[in-house]
UniProtKB/TrEMBL annotation, chain A:
Gene3D superfamilies: P-loop containing nucleotide triphosphate hydrolases. It comes from Sedimenticola selenatireducens. SMART domains: AAA. Pfam families: ABC_tran, BCA_ABC_TP_C. This is ATP-binding cassette domain-containing protein. GO terms for molecular function: ATP binding; ATP hydrolysis activity; L-isoleucine transmembrane transporter activity; L-phenylalanine transmembrane transporter activity; L-valine transmembrane transporter activity. Belongs to the ABC transporter superfamily. It comes from the Bacteria. GO terms for biological process: D-alanine transmembrane transport; L-alanine transport; L-isoleucine import across plasma membrane; L-valine import across plasma membrane. InterPro entries: AAA+_ATPase, ABC_AA/LPS_Transport, ABC_transporter-like_ATP-bd, BCA_ABC_TP_C, P-loop_NTPase. Signal peptide: none annotated. Residues 21-277 form the ABC transporter domain. One of its GO terms (cellular component) is plasma membrane.
Automatic annotation (TrEMBL), chain B:
It holds the Pfam family BPD_transp_2. One of its GO terms (biological process) is L-alanine transport. This is Branched-chain amino acid ABC transporter permease LivH. Its main location: membrane. The chain crosses the membrane at residues 12-35, 42-62, 68-87, 99-118, 151-171, 201-222, 279-297. It comes from the Bacteria. Belongs to the binding-protein-dependent transport system permease family. LivHM subfamily. GO terms for cellular component: plasma membrane. Keywords: Amino-acid transport, Cell inner membrane, Cell membrane, Membrane, Transmembrane, Transmembrane helix, Transport. It comes from Sedimenticola selenatireducens. The keyword Transmembrane applies. It is found in: Cell inner membrane. It is a multi-pass membrane protein. One of its GO terms (molecular function) is L-isoleucine transmembrane transporter activity.
Length: 303, 304
């Protein structure tokens, strides 16, 4: 929006080289509260797009619009993938996952805690299995290719279990896993719906540095090997700077910056949003980024 | 001793019927956290459909009993399923997301409607049916008392075991069952994985209704008389069975049904037949005082 002319042009992302998700003029109002105000950006295929901003900036609301929790007040959300175009704002909640294959994880973990780790991954492949099982009738007797399909589903599940290092825990209840494992399992489950775009809401929250760097590797692996788009809400600036290709900054519901990590880090608008308005002299960008990393108030979240 | 064993057989038979109805209560409670108060009336409708189908089959001359039973079973399951689906569509789905009491009240309305609808169509008098399956085995022809197991009792218990196994397999092995368990734990997350939550809930009602219809058919065969009001008491008993076993738990519903059947039978056999319902409900009160979650129920964990 407010691009600074002094920035070298190569630092700004040429928007929409291979756009997967295009968000146009998205506005979400709750009564008098404007949670998202005319936000437009696009997220590319094979890219990690990070959405950052102070707590309460509207990041989770944006995710909720994309995944069909909320119907946007104004705006259009277009997903172009696998030769089809989906207008997400017009689709029912479950069809967004079923047809457009948009996957999502939550800030607070939402696994099926009373199912086994493996079942959590198989339940994500429900639609294909439901069709293969003749809507349960033939499936009950193991007829009509259901066995084969179920084996395929289990194979996909095991592939992802292997990727997130949980193979040895496949049969225990998901609720009994340690926190870090649950986070990774959630990502594995999201991958089992064969997503075109994966939306991750603070995947690194609560992870220790080692787990966090493993997570980074996993996300980069997913991006490179599966050629999907990743949309990431993250507070940990080191994660954002390390793995994202494209950063969108929100503040009070508006987009204040959009570009490469390097560009965004030095954008005065971003520094102002993180450090406050009364900044007479701009801090050196490295210092500002460092402070921004530590400035992480947990108490304004919730919109 | 012979008397005791005879009552055991009778109690298990009655308990099977209660168990079949109780599964419908417990599955619906599991998935939407609400009691389907129209479920007892679906059972009653299943009984009427069975009676009518038996009569029609008699008229068109299908009298070979296994075939007739199979046809009646399928017809009553299918038609009762349609009723179950309709109840969900009319009384529950429009009110999803409304305050908690609203669907409860609309379900009670649905129950009253169904009772009156059958009363208008079929009349208020009891409807008798000729015994279809007669005869049985007699064991231990003792001097004082002999134990008899009728063929009908064997049919009832066998059919119940088969159906309960089939439904347990659906829940544990098929994709529909996994979706149901998913919706039970987290409906929002299930939708985000592409599961059609509304359809899964509908199918849960349909499955419960199909089992209630089987119970209705067995009830007609066992007692030989029905009226439009049988759904109320049977429904309350089966609901009690579901709560006794731990509402939301499938094995609990089966166990609860058996226990209610046994308690009722033994009470009538050894004490007084007038107070058999009191006995069943008194046991419920006792269990709930000492184990509020029922026998096999899990303690309610506050959801975030």
């Amino acid at each position: 929006m407010k691009e600074v002319s002094t920035t070298p042009p190569e630092l700004v992302i040429p928007s929409g080289a291979d756009p997967l998700l295009t968000v146009e003029h998205l506005t979400m109002r709750f009564g008098g509260l404007v949670a998202i105000d005319d936000v437009s950006f696009s997220a590319g295929k094979g890219e990690i797009t990070a959405i950052i901003g102070p707590n309460g900036a509207g990041k989770t609301t944006l995710f909720n619009c994309i995944t069909g929790f909320y119907t946007p007040t104004v705006g259009r959300l277009t997903l172009t993938a696998r030769g089809e175009e989906y207008l997400l704002e017009r689709m029912d909640g479950f069809r967004i996952a079923q047809k457009a294959h948009v996957a999502r994880t939550f800030q607070n973990i939402r696994l099926f805690s009373e199912m086994s780790v493996l079942e959590n991954l198989i339940v994500a492949q429900h639609n294909e299995l439901m069709r293969a099982s003749g809507f349960t009738v033939t499936g009950l007797f193991g007829l009509g290719g259901y066995r084969k399909k179920e084996k395929e589903a289990a194979d996909l599940a095991r592939y992802w279990l292997d990727k997130v290092n949980l193979t040895h825990l496949a049969d225990i209840n998901a609720g009994n896993l340690p926190y870090g494992d649950q986070r990774r399992l959630e990502i594995a489950r999201a991958m089992c719906i064969k997503p075109t775009i994966l939306c991750l809401d603070e995947p690194a929250a609560g992870l220790n540095p080692k787990e966090s760097s493993e997570l980074n590797k996993l996300l980069i692996y997913i991006k490179d090997e599966h050629d999907i788009g990743l949309l990431l809400i993250e507070h940990d600036m080191s994660v954002v700077m390390e793995i994202s290709d494209h950063v969108v900054v929100l503040d009070y519901g508006s987009k204040i910056s959009d570009g490469t990590p390097l560009y965004v880090r030095s954008d005065p608008n971003v520094i102002r949003a993180y450090l406050g308005e009364d900044e007479d002299e701009a801090l050196p960008p490295e210092v500002a980024a460092d402070i921004a990393k530590d400035f992480d108030p947990e108490n304004r979240e919730g919109v | 001793m012979e008397y005791f064993i005879q009552q055991l057989i009778n109690g298990v038979t009655l308990g099977s019927i209660y168990g079949l109805i109780a599964i419908g209560y417990t599955m619906v409670y599991g998935i939407i956290g609400m009691i389907n108060f129209a479920h007892g009336d679906i059972f009653m409708i299943g009984a009427f459909i069975s009676l009518i189908t038996f009569l029609v089959l008699g008229i068109i001359g299908i009298t070979w009993i296994p075939l007739a039973l199979l046809i009646v079973l399928l017809v009553s399951m299918i038609i009762a399923s349609i009723y179950g689906w309709t109840v969900e569509r009319l009384a529950y789905r429009p009110l999803r997301g409304s305050f908690r009491l609203a669907p409860l009240i609309s379900a009670i309305g649905m129950s009253i409607f169904l009772q009156n609808y059958v009363q208008l169509l079929q009349g208020a008098r009891v409807r008798p049916m000729q015994p279809v399956i007669s005869g049985g085995f007699t064991f231990l022809e003792g001097s004082a008392f002999s134990i008899t197991v009728s063929y009908l009792q064997i049919v009832i218990v066998l059919l119940t075991i088969i159906l309960m196994t089939a439904f347990a397999l659906i829940i544990s092995r098929t994709s529909l069952g996994r979706a149901q368990r998913g919706c039970e734990q987290d409906r929002t997350m299930s939708a985000l994985l592409g599961i059609n939550v509304d359809r899964t809930i509908s199918l849960t009602f349909v499955m419960g209704a199909a089992l209630a219809a089987v119970a209705g058919m067995l009830f007609v065969l066992y007692y030989g008389v029905i009226d439009f009001y049988i759904g109320f008491l049977a429904g309350v008993k089966a609901f009690t069975a579901a709560v006794l076993g731990g509402i939301g738990s499938l094995p609990g519903a089966m166990l609860g049904g058996l226990l209610i059947g046994l308690i009722e039978t033994y009470w009538s056999a050894y004490f007084s037949i007038e107070y058999k319902d009191v006995a069943a409900f008194a046991i419920l009160v006792l269990v709930l005082i000492f184990r509020p979650t029922g026998l096999l129920g899990k303690p309610e964990i506050e959801k975030v």
